[in-house]
Amino acid sequence: MNLSFIIPIYNGGKFIENLGSNIKNIHQAIDDVEFIIVNDGSTDDTSEKLHRFLNDHPEISARCRLIECENGGVSRARNQALDQAVGRYVMFMDHDDNVDAVKLGGLFNSLCVQDADILHFNCRYPVSGHSQTVDTNRFMVDFPFVSYVWSYIYRRSLIENIGLRFNENMKYLEDGLFVLAYLFQTDKIMVSDEQVYDYVDNPDSAMRAQRSDAQNKKFLDDVSSAVKGYTELVESRSNSPVYSRLKEIRDSFLFIYIVNMLKLNLGKKEFFSRLQNVGYDFKMANYPSKFNNRLPVRMLCGLFRSKPLLNLTLQTGAFNLLRKFV
């Protein structure tokens, strides 16, 4: 099996027709592909529509495994699929997004020929010849870190060699920790600026939906866990020639954490307690980076380096004046 295509789905009944079109196109474009669809305890008509689609398309049903499970979140769904995957490579897709199957098929053939450890597509920087192969250190330094798990194709044996799985305790920002931990295992990376994957900005998604107070707390807790996770990963590579770049990546998520705490108007006590909990030293020494050096980001980083100014910002609500810029 060349490729395991993993698709978690929760209450996605209205997207099944479009998902089916994507699956049919991918099936035609890539030889020897399996689809692992995980219905994560949907309460709508997702299961019924999935079974109908598979019954209507026996040629795809033969290449598809449908896992029905209790709702446990996208990380658990992906992990269950990884446990059953047998492909040489693995790719993840969200049920409400789209894939250009023709471009994917061409790049996947090149990936197999190059025998690279990972393919990164949708690169936001121009790539010579639209695709090239680089070593990991050059990739980390020359290209922006993209934390979306769907923007890569992974060699499954490397995932299994280190027992890599998604953190099932995190609902938000779990992708990036998986991606960075995987990148540490690679030697040869294929990069392409071909726009293979079309992320659909679904207002009902976990990242876009209006959050309750409890969900806002969960979001902040998960960003805190992400900052700690990145710190642990980065410090494990303290002797790496790209250590400074890795610290930039970590600080970019620290930046996200502070911005979101200010947006949620946390009280001063909780705000500084959370900063202490992630070990923040009020230096923000490694951010902004060359990949995000906009004036508002530079201004905010200056603010974040000053505890007295942060204190004043919390007291006056002055951050609201900057909200439209971030």
Short description:
With 326 residues, the protein is an alpha/beta fold.
Task: Give a description of the structure.
With 326 residues, this protein is an alpha/beta fold. The chain contains 13 helices and 10 strands. It folds into 2 domains: 3-198, Alpha-Beta Complex (Spore Coat Polysaccharide Biosynthesis Protein SpsA, Chain A); 213-325. It starts with a strand and ends in a 10-residue tail after the last helix. Strands 3-2-1-4-8-6-9-7 form an 8-stranded mixed β-sheet, with helices on both faces. Helix content is 46%, strand content 14%. Helix 1 (16-29) links the parallel strand 1 and strand 2.
Major beta sheet, strand line-up:
3-2-1-4-8-6-9-7
Shape: globular
Which parts are unreliable, with pLDDT below 50 for 5 consecutive residues or more? none
Order of helical and strand elements:
EHEHHEHEEHEEHEHHEEHHHHH
Structural class: alpha/beta
* β-strand amount: 5-15%
Number of helical stretches of at least 4 residues: 13
CATH superfamily of the largest domain: Spore Coat Polysaccharide Biosynthesis Protein SpsA, Chain A
Distance between the termini: 44 Å
Please name the CATH topology of the largest domain: Spore Coat Polysaccharide Biosynthesis Protein SpsA, Chain A
Protein name: Glycosyltransferase 2-like domain-containing protein
Organism: Neisseria dumasiana
Domain Glycosyltransferase 2-like: 4-145
Pfam families: Glycos_transf_2 (PF00535)
